[in-house]
Amino acid sequence: MIRKLIVRFIQTDSPANNTSKILKIGGINNTGDRWIISSKEAIKGVIAGDYELFIQVDNKEIPVKVEVNEDQEQYLNAHGAGYLHNLLEDLPEVSTSLSSS
């Protein structure tokens, strides 16, 4: 069964750095519980077809996809019409105290 999740926040390795990596993503599920998973788990889940990840921009769902950078590393990416950057980077940074799960 595919889990459709809306990503609402991220955790990066260094939020002040323009080249930071997204380490974790998270949101609130349909029962109101907070969920947080590592980027590695999210990438595996998207590739396996276990997860459909989205972000919401202007009441539209934008899919989160797995892409490969120039170093052949897989990463999560969300691009919407008219946007040139990864929209995941616009999401709020989650506190490390909330990311223990």
Structural features, described:
There is one protein chain. The protein has 101 residues and is mainly beta. The protein has one domain. Helix content is 10%, strand content 39%. It is built from one helix and eight strands, in the order E-E-E-E-H-E-E-E-E. It has a three-stranded mixed sheet. The protein is globular and about 40 Å long. The relative contact order is 0.24. The model has no long low-confidence stretch (mean pLDDT 87).
Short summary:
With 101 residues, the chain is mainly beta. It is built from one helix and eight strands, in the order ββββαββββ. The longest helix has 10 residues.
Radius of gyration: 13 Å
User: How many E strands?
Assistant: 8
Strand order of the largest sheet: 1-5-6
Distance between the termini: 22 Å
Shape assignment: globular
Order of helices and strands: EEEEHEEEE
Count of discrete domains: 1
What do the pLDDT scores average to? Answer: 87
Q: What profile does the largest beta sheet have?
A: 3 strands, mixed
The number of helical runs is 1
The helix fraction, in percent, is under 10%
**Structural class computed from helices and strand pairing:** mainly beta
Strand composition percent: 35-45%
- List low-pLDDT spans: none
